[in-house]
């Protein structure tokens, strides 16, 4: 996950939720998002796609 861009990480997070992937996987993505301090991009992505 370290190699993913911020945008791709956020997209992956939303896709993992959409596909109902394992909670452990989603948690790992969420932790990486927190570590990068890019939580604000989650809502930005939703408003852009939605």
From TrEMBL:
Gene3D superfamilies: Sporulation inhibitor A
Record keywords: Protein kinase inhibitor
GO molecular function: protein kinase inhibitor activity
The keyword Transmembrane helix is annotated on this UniProt entry: no
Signal peptide stretch: none
Keyword flag ATP-binding: no
A Pfam family recorded for this sequence: Sda
Protein's recorded name: Sporulation histidine kinase inhibitor Sda
Organism: Halobacillus salinarum
């Amino acid at each position: 996950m370290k190699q993913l861009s911020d945008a791709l990480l956020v997209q992956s997070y939303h896709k993992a939720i959409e596909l109902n992937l394992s909670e452990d996987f989603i948690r790992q993505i969420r932790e990486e998002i927190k570590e990068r301090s890019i939580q604000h991009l989650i809502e930005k992505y939703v408003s852009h796609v939605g």
